[in-house]
């Protein structure tokens, strides 16, 4: 099995690597034959995709963090309980900000309209304040969150990208807005990185064509309408979600342009490259593509391996667990018995088995139906599981019959465990519709050297029949020679 997994992972890695690398190399030779088409339709869009992916990654991470905050039971319970301890929510926001390295973290409560921040309560939002319009917009919307660019309440001079996430109580009623903010400067740093890497001009414009964010190397006009040669394409840029074209810039020659709308920011990303720079960077682009392909390959292999392991664990659980009660099933008991028997031979430890049966279970099904009987079985498993050791195994053998395997336990140890179980069941479990306490009868048997599981079950089964014949709600122990001696405790005869 392990070898097959290794072969699959190796084959997948080779195929993905060859596919990605082959695609990149083919693209390189095609670019040599048609540089203009390469730049206009592939190279610049790749840069745009990379920047867009980086922004999307940060936004998705921010959305995830905000979603965790919005669904955190601490936040909801704190609001529902009347916001009594303000310091607790302030500490919570400070920890979020520090843990995830965000520019800010906030929570605005609907009952009090207070704006909570790691620095304290900054204000009370109001419809009369235009700066608070975002809160009432989120309050009325149907979507769980929004992304907007706004000035930070804690630092009005700082422009931030906010994820505003609705917070609802368990009934679905709106109780506030929470989220985090990212400094726009982080996008500016991303621009600087790509400009240095590819020698391209990168900037953002708003719906009016005004340049909202640019790298340090940009020294042109404040809007695209003022750029010589580009102004004629302004309408085309601002009315299309994405476009690519080339234009002539005085004294600089041909400039290739790629634009795309970033809907989350409501800005257009503009990437420009001069023809001469494209020639110099073509090989570097190939290298970047190959590295990116290797990274994606590694990610796919890791995710694929993780997914396969998850499915394998789930299948193993399904194969060894009883679906109704969550107890182990026959296959699991047989495997664990073999392991316990090997340890017993090696260390000289005893093994014991308890056969447990619900008294008058058929009457429960006949009077109240199988659904009531199923509920009794589930509750019984919960009670029994609380009384046995972690090393013990509770197995549903069939119907209302259960087996409990007790490694490193002799007959007396098993009898004591059975008595605890019997008392706990009678004390905690009730029959449907107030029919009285639920009771169980149990048979205990200690394993003989090299005894098979079937033989051990048979002897415990015979002890169980003895407990039933003696009036139920009791424990009977099978002697090693095959006889049985009932052990009883204070009980209600069933």
TrEMBL record:
It is an enzyme of class 2 (transferase). Residues 427-451, 468-494 are annotated as: Disordered. GO terms for molecular function: diguanylate cyclase activity. The chain crosses the membrane at residues 286-308. Gene3D superfamilies: 3.30.70.270. Keywords: Membrane, Nucleotidyltransferase, Transferase, Transmembrane, Transmembrane helix. SMART domains: GGDEF. InterPro entries: Diguanylate_Cyclase, GGDEF_dom, Nucleotide_cyclase, Rev_trsase/Diguanyl_cyclase, Sensor-like_sf. PROSITE patterns: GGDEF. Residues 349-480 form the GGDEF domain. Its EC number is 2.7.7.65. Residues 480-494 have a biased composition (Polar residues). NCBIfam families: GGDEF. This is diguanylate cyclase.
